[in-house]
Each structure stands twice: as C-alpha cells, then as structure tokens.
C-alpha cells in the first residue's frame, strides 16, 4: 500500500505553496487557514499574511486586531486570535521558533493534536500520521471498520513508511480530498484499492464530515458582519443591530456582540466596539 500511494502522489501531487517550504511558521499559518476553508480562498491570503507577518516574532509584535484584519475573507476569526496567541507564546517560551516536540506544540494556545502533527510532518518531516477528515476517511475505509479515535491515530502512525513522513501525509491528504471523497468515491481510480477492506457498496465505515448548521441567518453570520465592519474602524454600540443585520432584533445583536467581546475579538471603547 505504501509504495503504491507514494508513487501515485509523485505523479499527481497538487502544487500548493505551503508544500514548497519547511518553515514551521509558514506550515502553521497554512494549517490554521485551511481549517474549514477552501484551498482556492486560502492561497492568496496565505501569501499576503506571510508577507505581513513572516515570523512568529513579527506576528507577536503586532496588535491582535491587525492579525484579525489580515484574516479578512477566511472566516472563523477566532483562528486569527489563536494564531496571534500562539506567536506570543512561541516568542516567550521558545525563542521565536516553533518547537519540534508534540507535547510542546499541543501546549501552545490554539494548537490541537492534528495541527501539532501537521507541523511535525510538514515542517520537521517526522514520521507521524496527520489525521484530518480526509486522511481519516482513508484510514477507516482501508481498515474496513470504524475505529475509535485513538485506534485511528495509531493506525495512521503505523502506516507511515520510515523516513517518508512528509511525502506520505501529503499523499494521504490528496487521496482523501480528490479520490476517496465523502460522496461518490472514485474507487476505480484509487491507487490503493487492492489494499482496501471496504468494497464501496456496504455501509461506509468512515466517519462523516462534521455538518455545520445553516450559515444564512445564523449567529455566525452576524458575528462575521460585525468583525468585517470592525476591520474598517469602530462600530458604535447603538449601531450594532444594524451592522449585525438584525435592526429589528437588538437583543440578539447585542448578545452576539457580547460574544465577540468574550472571545477577545472585540473590546468596548467608550460607546463603541473596536478590534483588540
């Protein structure tokens, strides 16, 4: 299975900008941007962000609000705050260099097990399994059964060929994203179909992607409108209902604004909201 997948990837690997670097900070930026955001939207933002904040030190030295402004168009703005907090912690704890240790990476704010392993594999070329929703689909389907999370991670780690952590994980991510898809997997084109325990017809053992609630009309939409407005300048508290899109529901609008303050995405300054 390993050699077949690596050979397939060498022929078909997607040419993505973060695959041309082993800089841990650049890898981390790409991973946080790619969470729940399409690759096409991330690419221009990735280049612009790294031009503005090329190192953890440059990011840590900037106000958190500047990082939120640079995140415009990517959504899920708390990721920007997490990245800024991580940069500050890296400067304070690790002399401005992301650590190459799993536990030390997970101890940083906003970095979970997946992101930590991604940094280890794609920046430090460690032989660890990177298990996002796409790679997890491959792991469960080739195993032919639904695995508990810990067992899935163990299997993902065991599948990595020695010395091939970077190439293997890129191949797994591409396979899950382009061939072993959640809907209508193209088993006839799969380079590892001969090693797969799922027949493509019986009950799918892969965990389904997390389903988001409808965005239109949601609190997330109102939060996004407020943060977009704050990128341009202060928002008067009296104008919050209009800016959030709910002029006839001020209670909801102010509740959502309060949640931004609680999350650190906004602060109250006099009679207005501003970015931190």
Structure, described:
With 276 residues, the protein is mainly α. Among the domains are: 23-122, Endonuclease III, domain 1, CATH 1.10.340.30; 219-274, Arc Repressor Mutant, subunit A (Orthogonal Bundle). The protein has 14 helices and three strands. Helix 1 packs across helix 11 and helix 12 (219-232) crosses helix 14 (250-263). The longest helix is centred in the N-terminal third of the chain and has 17 residues, at 78-94. The protein is globular, with a radius of gyration of 21 Å.
Write a compact overview of the structure shown.
The protein has 276 residues and is an all-alpha fold.
On the 0 to 100 scale, the average pLDDT is: 92
Alpha carbon gyration radius: 21 Å
CATH class term of the domain at 23-122: Mainly Alpha
**What's the architecture of the domain at 23-122 in CATH terms?**
Orthogonal Bundle
Low-confidence stretches are none
Discrete helix count: 14
What is the CATH T-level topology of the domain at 23-122?
Endonuclease III, domain 1
What structural keywords apply?
276 residues; mainly alpha; Endonuclease III, domain 1; Arc Repressor Mutant, subunit A; three-stranded antiparallel beta sheet; 14 helices; 3% strand
């Amino acid at each position: 299975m390993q050699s077949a997948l690596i050979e397939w990837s060498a022929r078909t690997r997607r040419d993505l900008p973060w695959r041309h670097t082993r800089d841990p900070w650049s890898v981390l930026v790409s991973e946080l941007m790619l969470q729940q955001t399409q690759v096409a939207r991330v690419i221009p933002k990735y280049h612009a962000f790294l031009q503005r904040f090329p190192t953890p030190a440059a990011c840590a030295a900037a106000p958190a609000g500047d990082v939120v402004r640079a995140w415009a168009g990517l959504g899920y703005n708390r990721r920007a705050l997490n990245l800024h907090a991580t940069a500050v912690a890296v400067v304070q704890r690790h002399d401005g260099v992301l650590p190459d240790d799993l536990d030390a990476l997970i101890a940083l704010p906003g970095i979970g097990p997946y992101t930590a392993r991604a940094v280890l594999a794609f920046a430090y070329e460690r032989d660890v399994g990177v298990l996002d929703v796409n790679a997890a689909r491959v792991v469960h389907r080739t195993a032919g059964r639904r695995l508990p999370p810990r067992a899935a991670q163990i299997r993902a780690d065991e599948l990595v060929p020695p010395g091939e952590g970077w190439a293997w994980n890129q191949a797994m991510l591409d396979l899950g994203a382009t061939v072993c898809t959640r809907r209508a997997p193209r088993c006839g084109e799969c380079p590892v179909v001969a090693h797969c325990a799922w027949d493509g017809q019986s009950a799918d053992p892969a965990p389904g992607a997390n389903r988001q609630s409808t965005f239109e009309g949601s609190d997330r939409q109102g939060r996004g409108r407020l943060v977009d407005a704050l990128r341009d300048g202060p928002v008067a508290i009296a104008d919050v209902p209009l800016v959030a899109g709910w002029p006839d529901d001020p209670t909801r609008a102010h509740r959502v604004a309060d949640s931004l303050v609680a999350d650190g995405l906004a602060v109250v300054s006099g009679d207005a909201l501003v970015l931190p």
